[in-house]
Amino acid sequence: MQILSKDIPQANVLDEAIRAVIAVSNGARTDEEIGNSIDKGDRNGRYYRLAGEILGFLHNERGQNEATLTAKGQEFTGSPEERERLLAGAVLNARLFQRVVPFLEAAGPNGITRPQLDAFIREVTEPAKGETTAHRRSSTIVHWLKRISMIREANGQLILSGTLPDGVEVMHYDAPDEPLSPTQYALTDYNNIAEKARSAEGYLASQIDAAALERAGLAHQMLTNCVASRIRLAGAIPKQNRYIDLSATINNNHYLFEMKSTTAVNAHSQVRKAISQLYEYRYIQQAPDAKLVVVIENPMPEDKRWLIDYVVNDRQLLIAWDGDRTNLHCPDQLRGELGFLVQP
Fold first, then answer.
1. Ramachandran area for residue 325 (φ above 0: left; ψ -120 to 50: alpha; else beta)
2. CATH for 5-80?
3. How many CB atoms lie within 10 A of CB 10?
4. What pLDDT was estimated at residue 212?
5. Would you tell me which CATH number, out of the four given (3.40.50, 3.40.1350, 2.60.40, 3.30.70), belongs to the domain 187-342?
6. Which of the four pLDDT bands, split at 50, 70 and 90, describes residue 130?
7. According to the CATH classification, is domain 93-163 in 1.10.10?
8. pLDDT band at residue 344, thresholds of 50, 70 and 90?
9. What pLDDT does residue 266 have?
10. How far apart are CA 236 and CA 325, in angstroms?
11. Of the candidates 228, 269, 240, 226, which has an alpha carbon nearest to the alpha carbon of residue 176?
12. Considering the entire predicted model, what is its pTM?
């Protein structure tokens, strides 16, 4: 699906959007009041207020011209020492940037040109009047990503930074129909994935509820944090949505990870559940070449060791486990593929 115009920032300077959010925290409400507070005038006040909404810091009832802080906005304005981290997370939580970052990621260390970014933006965003619209949108995207140190420009190429900004552990996708690591970048491919997600809407709703329950557990969170850390150390970007624990692109290979807390009693059922979920997620995400990784809390119990052979040699999946609370481990034959994960 196309990114709607309302979700595309028109405020080129991210720091001015920050000033607009702070102005609202100080009592500004209307576009005129916001614009005057940041010396930008009524029209630009609206642009920067909309930017605050895209960041998730401001809320405005449509047609009311009455901006207020969201809970995220209150946290942002009330925690000056945390603002850089919260700002980077807010930018990367916006759907437009969640579509742009994988596109830049796929280009690798050579990066892309501004015209290539313009063409991509023209392809995946709602059309607007004017031939220069895609370029203006791209310019704002570049400014925002530079501001949070996610990209650099060298020899006319836009190059994605190795991993996430300081303090941002995972890139979280709110929309379950947005691909985490697409393999194609045409609008038809995004539409196909969105359609698959819609057709599985009831299933996904149940998986989102189950995932929220699992993620509340300390063991699950520990595994997720550990794997995300290893992904970042590998110079890649860990991503997740409400039902996929983690996804990453490392050395041009796409990975989907499912974490499971395990005991001697439930290891079999948890591994079985992880396998089925990973196959379904790969189908919905339309990523047939993605490598599927089961990550479990404890080494496999002796009487269930055959499951490792089943996962690796029969199902052609990957598996790793914690076991000592410091390092991840995997079968010897997988160390080539999972070296980034199991080597501290």
1. left
2. 1.10.10.10
3. 15
4. 84
5. 3.40.1350
6. low
7. yes
8. low
9. 95
10. 23
11. 240
12. 0.91
- How many angstroms separate the most distant Cα atoms in the chain? 71
Q: Which long-range contacts (CB under 8 A, 24 or more apart) does 116-121 make?
A: 117/141, 117/142, 117/158, 120/185
For residue 300 the two structure tokens come to 């496999």
Q: Kindly state the tokens that stand for 197.
A: 């997600």
pLDDT score for 211? 83
Residues 6 or more apart whose Cβ sits within 8 Å of residue 247: 180, 181, 238, 239, 240, 254, 255, 256, 257, 285, 290
CA–CA gap between residue 285 and residue 255 (Å, rounded): 12
Residue 332 CB burial class (10 angstroms; 0-12, 13-18, ≥19): exposed
Q: Residue 242 is which amino acid?
A: R
3-state secondary structure of 20: helix
Residue 124 phi, psi (nearest 5): -110, 5
Per-residue tokens: 122: 């023209």
Q: Hunting for tokens 């009047």 — which residue is that?
A: 129
Task: Note the pLDDT of residue 324.
Answer: 77
Q: What is the 3-state composition of the chain as percent helix, strand, coil, each rounded to the nearest 5?
A: 55, 15, 35
List CB contacts of 242: < 8 A, sequence separation 6 or more. 173, 174, 176, 208, 211, 212
